[in-house]
Specification:
heterodimer; A: about 100 residues; mainly alpha; Chorismate Mutase Domain, subunit A; disordered C terminus; B: about 350 residues; alpha/beta; Alpha-Beta Plaits; TIM Barrel; eight-stranded parallel barrel; four-stranded antiparallel β-sheet; elongated
């Protein structure tokens, strides 16, 4: 019985982490849209290949530092970076960062 | 199986349809258009009962997919896919886009000279090989990392996005630090580890048709990239092997309308590899655009007689400029305009 209670508790903790993750992803997307607007007004292209690689490598370094699986973090970050690049193109059509709308 | 939702179906209906499909062990992929939402079911279709699915609230239509590819299938997308290249230029958009440059980056001066020339003539992106797959192990394999640095310089100087080939999954990240579009060459169309890797990186992919690949195999290769989470795939017809040897390859012009009816992905043509000879490049380019191609990939070299690869099929900058001028008429006849290079602010890019 004790282990069933533990499991339920752990699942609750996972749900709380997931909610935080989703909120962070929404925040990141909103920031990406703001970056898209800034790039547009500076006449810069949305895609910055060197910068994207830098962002993924920085996340990989943090993964090593924080004890997360590095390859897993890299794979996730390539997806995040690509998704946020696409969001940058929506920059003008969307509301300013609120964290809740994305 | 594809589920089309009624225009008035809301998020609750969509969630219910996804939950119903996912409970049967399949994954769902949603494509939203202006007038309808499409839920694609990925996995073993046999597990789904179409009539039960049809009875769910909000469902307008359930269509079986009779193709081995699903994410690449035209019915899977509510609208054609466009792949943004630069400001105002998207492959698959209303305008025809032209990507041009040398087969291989051979040095700084020739690359910058070519980049300036193709931009002046109206190309919206620069191609140039850094890592080259060669039939002979003794042929020029490209300058590798040195070429990547030169491509980055050309990008900063001209503002043109870079299209360059990835040969090896181990180099993919290095190439991605420079390239706006990762090219998969004809010889690697069925290199599934490489397709998975460029799928994972999420960068636009230009996938060349294998020289002996059927259109079905070509679309299945695209499916690999899509299935790894990357929706931005450009298909490139570049000629196939036939009994004819007068041209380097045989330009399969029918591939354009067939692909357009099979898939939502944009289709471009490389007339240089199809022709194999510079004087035949322009007519094939015109035919491609007349047949509905979304763009072209053209080899240009300032001095083709000195080229270390593909000199016979490379256009001189003047010939490329002539091609671009004449292309406008063919694009107009096909109901399209030609995309122009985005204005470049050297001061901010430097």
């Amino acid at each position: 019985m004790r282990s069933a209670a533990d499991l339920a508790q752990l699942r609750e903790a996972i749900a709380a982490v997931d909610r935080e993750l989703v909120a962070l992803l929404a925040r990141r997307r909103a920031l990406a849209r703001a970056i898209g607007r800034a790039k547009a007004s500076a006449g810069l292209p949305v895609l910055d290949p060197a910068r994207e690689v830098e962002v993924v490598r920085r996340a990989a370094a943090w993964a090593r530092e924080l004890g997360a699986d590095e390859e897993w973090v890299r794979a996730l970050f390539w997806q995040i970076v690509a998704g946020c690049r696409r969001a940058q193109r929506e920059g003008e059509a969307c509301a300013p960062p609120s964290g809740a709308s994305a | 199986m594809i589920v089309v939702l009624r225009a008035d179906a809301g998020p609750a209906e969509l969630d219910a349809v996804r939950a119903w499909v996912e409970a049967r062990g399949l994954r769902t992929h949603v494509s939203r258009g202006e007038r309808r939402t499409i839920v694609g079911c990925i996995g073993e279709d046999g597990r789904l009962d179409a009539s039960a699915l049809r009875a769910l609230p909000g469902v307008e239509e359930v269509i079986p997919v009779l193709r081995p590819y699903t994410l690449a299938a035209k019915a899977f997308a509510a609208a054609p896919t466009t792949v943004p290249l630069a400001e105002g230029a998207a492959v698959g958009g209303p305008e025809v886009v032209v990507i041009a440059g040398p087969c291989a980056v051979e040095g700084r001066a020739m690359l910058l000279e070519t980049a300036d020339a193709v931009r002046a003539a109206g190309a919206v992106a620069l191609r140039g090989g850094a890592f080259k797959p060669r039939t002979s192990p003794y042929a020029f394999p490209g300058l590798g990392r040195e070429a990547l640095a030169l491509l980055a310089e050309a990008r900063a100087r001209t503002g043109l996005p870079i299209v360059t080939e990835v040969l090896d999954p181990r180099h993919a990240e290095e190439v991605a630090a420079v390239a706006d579009v990762l090219q998969i060459g004809t010889r690697n169309m069925q290199n599934y580890a490489l397709l998975a890797e460029v799928g994972r990186l999420g960068r636009p992919v230009l996938l060349k048709r294998g020289m002996a690949a059927t259109l079905r195999e070509f679309l299945l290769a695209a499916e690999y990239v899509l299935a790894h989470g990357n929706p931005e795939v450009i298909l490139c017809e570049r000629g196939i092997r036939t009994f004819e040897t007068a041209t380097r390859n045989t330009f399969d012009v029918a591939a354009i309308p067939v692909l357009k009816s099979e898939t939502h992905l944009p289709v471009i043509v490389d007339p240089s590899h199809a022709a194999g000879r510079a004087e035949w490049v322009a007519p094939l380019a015109f035919a491609a655009v007349a047949a509905g191609a979304d763009g072209l990939l053209v080899e240009v070299h300032p001095r083709p007689e000195e080229a270390r690869s593909d000199g016979d099929q490379s256009l001189r900058p003047e010939a490329f400029a002539t091609l671009m001028r004449r292309l406008e008429g063919f694009a107009a006849a096909a109901g399209r305009g030609l995309a122009r290079p985005a204005p470049h602010r050297a001061e901010v890019a430097a």
